[in-house]
Amino acid sequence: MLLASDCMHSIGMLLHKDDEMGKEYGLTATQLSDFRFLNEMHYDDRYGAYFDFGNHTEKVRLSWKEMINGNGYPSRELVRDVLERPKLGFVPHIGYVSLFPFMTKIIPSDSTILESQLDLISNKSILWTEYGLRSLSRSSSVYMKRNTEHDPPYWRGPIWMNMNYLILSALHHYAQEGGPYKDRAQTIYSDLRSNLVSLSLTYQITPE
């Protein structure tokens, strides 16, 4: 939302659109980039990570059930069973969503939260692989599990190059900034860049 509102505000400025909507986008971007406000809403000290906040329960499963289709014939479908009423709170699954503040470079370079983000990125038991960063921690209860019968786990483990690019960009940014984590950011940047380049070359299609 920060990136979207900032882009809309920038486009408005470029086109000299000084109307109320343009100003609103600017105010929204300013609010969402407030580091203190961000931490109050989304940072969990217990995990050292950012999480979505909303109604959530871990008591969910997919089950095969007999259904009657539109023609009146029975069929089997894989449906979601919610076994416990969702409660308002953090959604405790570490993945790309936990790195969005890092990707948008709004974490101060001297913040200990930046160190926590670097820990998440480089931890082989969570996101790090030799091919790039997973979209979801392999320790998550929903890692590589379907959301529904027709919704494969696209964002529940597979590696997405666009997200890895944004993370790589942020690592490069922090490697250039002053602060106690500059050298570590540079090391992780070099290792991740090497992994992503190797992956791209491995799957490159050679024209016939």
TrEMBL record:
Single GO MF annotation: Glc3Man9GlcNAc2 oligosaccharide glucosidase activity
Gene Ontology annotations of biological process type: oligosaccharide metabolic process; protein N-linked glycosylation
Domain of life per record: Eukaryota
Gene Ontology CC annotations of this record: endoplasmic reticulum membrane
Domain Glycosyl hydrolase family 63 C-terminal positions: 1-198
Xref: InterPro entries: 6-hairpin_glycosidase_sf (IPR008928), 6hp_glycosidase-like_sf (IPR012341), Glyco_hydro_63_C (IPR031335), Glycoside_hydrolase_63 (IPR004888)
Annotated Pfam families: Glyco_hydro_63
Protein name per UniProt: Glycosyl hydrolase family 63 C-terminal domain-containing protein
Species of the source: Kalanchoe fedtschenkoi
